[in-house]
């Protein structure tokens, strides 16, 4: 049986704008709820003298999971014919940001919810900013509670316009805006008759239109050298293929030095691995035609798709250090197998991970803050933008023996020449 495709999504938005209700609706409409959950929610809603509260379905779901065996993380899941959806639960922004930046969680797409009646709030903006910090590009904005504004097309367009302007400044370009009433199920599963002016898809259909990222094996080759072993007269370069595919005879470049050669042989640790190519996730040893000096920290890539090579770059970091991070301070930076001294060249913006309030021109970054920084390494290193490759676009900062920060590369610094 082929594995079903799965997509991780995160749902963000100002408190009370309808996150739980949207999720509850999706679970309900796709029949993804545990047995008895609906009855339980009916009962609780009645006891509270309220109409059926879809938001409570989430609690029922989580309760069910806690009684099960696996309770380490509550993962809400629902299914369409096309694929499985996993909702990355964000108990707090702090955990979410930390997990995303460190790679413990991976939201591939996001739903940003705005209450049509209240309009865009400060917190809606902050959530938009978070999406930009994390490089999440697959975003739909749901304009919710349309029932409260009489399903007004004019108000929908007004909010859409404001949101589009704001997000555009952050280089976040939502793929769709969908007017919904999560509570009444309008434009969730079926196209809403109350909003016949809306020509787009209802949410569930739209979700299936999110294109899944290419898998690591389909990306450009990234083979960081872990070690070089000498056997008899041969040098075997060992490592784990982090992305792409490697074949005997391939023309390769060793970066950051940019020496070129060809792959002579792929050596396998086990006989059963023997295929003519090796791809992302496999640990292999190779020999190359020109045996110039190679060492740990270099990366083998294909000529036609080399990574960024620079000593200065922009990054978004999550700071975990006991002491605040200060401009000019030096740390050790680890990016796949590269290890290099680096300096925090400048701090562009600091974001309090609890309130998501941002400060520009801050002198330091406190524990659990997120920051946009410029990092300068002692020598050139090779990497990718995080949005192009999550493995070679992610690094950690180390202070002595303490891992004090995690970061993702957001891009090169314009106007600063590489290597200068
Ligand atoms: P969250 O804090 O973002 O998770 O918001 P909830 O999902 O808990 O919703 C907050 C309140 O708004 C609840 O009382 C919901 O019933 C209500 N609500 C959510 N969606 C809608 C909607 O489409 N229309 C109306 N009228 N109320 C809604």
From TrEMBL:
**What species is given as this protein's source?**
Propionispora hippei DSM 15287
Q: Name one GO biological process term.
A: sulfur compound metabolic process
Q: Which UniProt keywords apply?
A: ATP-binding, GTP-binding, Nucleotide-binding, Nucleotidyltransferase, Transferase
Q: Name one GO molecular function term.
A: GTP binding
Coiled-coil residues are none
Might you give the EC number(s) for this enzyme?
Answer: 2.7.7.4
Q: What class of enzyme is it?
A: transferase
Q: What is this protein called?
A: sulfate adenylyltransferase
């Amino acid at each position: 049986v082929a594995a079903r495709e799965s997509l991780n999504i995160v749902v963000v938005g100002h408190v009370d704008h309808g996150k739980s209700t949207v999720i509850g609706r999706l679970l309900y409409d796709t029949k993804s709820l545990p047995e008895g959950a609906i009855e339980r929610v009916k009962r609780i809603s009645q006891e509270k003298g309220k109409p059926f509260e879809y938001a409570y379905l989430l609690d029922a779901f989580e309760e069910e999971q806690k009684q099960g065996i696996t309770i380490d993380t509550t993962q809400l899941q629902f299914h369409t014919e096309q694929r499985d959806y996993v909702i990355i639960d964000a108990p707090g922004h702090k955990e979410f940001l930390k997990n995303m930046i460190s790679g413990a969680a991976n939201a591939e797409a996001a739903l940003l919810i705005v209450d049509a009646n209240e309009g865009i709030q400060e917190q809606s903006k902050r959530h938009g900013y978070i999406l930009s910090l994390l490089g999440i590009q697959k975003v739909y904005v749901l304009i919710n509670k349309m029932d409260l504004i009489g399903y007004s097309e004019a108000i929908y367009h007004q909010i859409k316009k404001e949101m589009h302007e704001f997000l555009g400044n952050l280089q976040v370009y939502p793929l769709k805006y969908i007017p919904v009433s999560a509570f009444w199920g309008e434009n969730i599963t079926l196209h809403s008759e109350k909003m016949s002016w809306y020509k787009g898809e209802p949410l569930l259909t739209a979700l299936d239109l999110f294109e899944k990222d290419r898998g690591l094996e389909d990306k450009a080759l990234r083979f960081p050298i872990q070690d070089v072993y000498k056997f008899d007269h041969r040098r075997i370069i060992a490592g784990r293929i982090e992305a792409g595919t490697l074949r005997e005879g391939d023309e390769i470049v060793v970066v950051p030095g940019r020496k070129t050669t060809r792959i002579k042989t792929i050596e396998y640790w086990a006989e059963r691995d023997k295929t003519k190519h090796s791809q992302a996730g496999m640990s292999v040893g190779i020999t190359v035609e020109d045996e110039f000096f190679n060492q740990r920290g270099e990366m083998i890539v294909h000529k036609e798709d080399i990574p960024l090579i620079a000593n200065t770059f922009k990054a978004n970091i999550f700071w975990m250090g006991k002491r605040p991070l200060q401009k000019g301070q030096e740390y050790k930076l680890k990016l796949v197998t590269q290890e290099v001294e680096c300096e925090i060249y400048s701090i562009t913006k600091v974001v309090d991970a609890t309130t998501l309030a941002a400060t520009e021109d801050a002198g330091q970054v406190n524990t659990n803050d997120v920051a946009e920084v410029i990092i300068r390494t002692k020598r050139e290193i090779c990497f990718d933008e995080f949005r192009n490759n999550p493995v070679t676009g992610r690094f950690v900062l180390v202070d002595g023996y303490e891992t004090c920060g995690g970061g993702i590369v957001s891009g090169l610094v314009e106007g600063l020449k590489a290597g200068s």
